[in-house]
Amino acid sequence: MQAQVLKWGNSLAVRIPKPVAEDAHFEVGDALEIAVGADGIVQLHRVGTMPTLAQMVAQITPENRYAEVPLGAETGREIVEW
Question: What sign for the dihedral angle of Cα 20, 24, 29, 35?
Answer without folding.
Answer: negative
